[in-house]
Amino acid sequence: MKILYGVQGTGNGHITRARAMAKCFHEQGVSVDYMFSGREPSQYFDMDIFGPYCTFRGLSFVTEDGKVQVFKSARKLNLLSFIKDVRALNVDSYDLIINDFEPVSAWAGKLSGKQVINISHQAAFYDPLVPMLSVASLHRRFISLFAPSDLALGVHWLPFGGRILPPFVEVNCDNKQSHSFKLVYLPFENLDEIISLLTLFSDEDFIVYHPDMTEKKHIENCHINPLNRVNFIHDLQNCNGVICNAGFELSSEALTLGKKLLVKPLQGQFEQLSNAKVLVDMQRATIMHSLNEFTLDNWLTEQGVEKVNFPSDPAPLINWLLAGNYQEPEQLCEQLWLRV
């Protein structure tokens, strides 16, 4: 079976999920071609696991100061360039296209009549039981148009419906320690505003990762770092709390390690607003809707949480994909939830 794996590159969570899949494909000796879209090629990092990969511009949104900028996103949208990308991606030789909410490969597969399976967190929102805090029907329509597929398997923290998988989380719980510092990853927020908030709490230590950084820097009680997957996971394992946007993969890693969470959902992004609500309903996180010192102060005094044992090995999913019988995904999902 020849497989193309298309990955949305605007957020690191999609790439994190693809890394776990790529590792398992490699261990089973399965050759997979990977393609990414949604960010500048120079902004990808720690990509060795994927071997030679290709990138396209794709479709993405513009964010400023923790908010999705609708009008700037619309102005950035270049449909002619997107159509050229879809036509340039030749999928004729592939038997299967796996898609993590990536629009170029999804549309190329649809137009070529290829089997496209969407395995993503966004696909979970097809299920009406998954909370959505705004116009649900419009957002579900958006998901289906953005990255169309023949079969959609969602990924979420709870088995809301029959076609939702648990996340595969690779962090090593055996190396987990408990130091006093807090890990901060708020890539959509203004870095100066983040530091202004954190330095108000001089008795606390914060390790901050931000895409605006190119080298390490130390400001009062904040150690600020450029993005680096290996160093980030090390600090995630050793911190005693995580402050982040309400993305899916980092929250999944924090839940697996039993780290308390303070999440600031990206305003205007329905997925993160929904994630924040689910985390609060699970009693696994506190929400702050702005960089608020009072919310942070209260959260710093909260106790830790019990960890959630999500599976780390996606082999059952990959074996199911390779078997080629996609008629009853509910049995696969049920099997994987028994491991949580």
Automatic annotation (TrEMBL):
Alphabetical keyword list? Transferase
The record ties this protein, via SUPFAM superfamilies, to: UDP-Glycosyltransferase/glycogen phosphorylase (SSF53756)
Q: Does the keyword Transferase apply?
A: yes
Domain of life, per the record?
A: Bacteria
**Transmembrane stretches, by residue range?**
none
Any one Gene Ontology molecular-function term assigned to this protein's record: transferase activity
| Name of this chain's protein | Glycosyl transferase
Give the originating organism.
Thalassotalea eurytherma
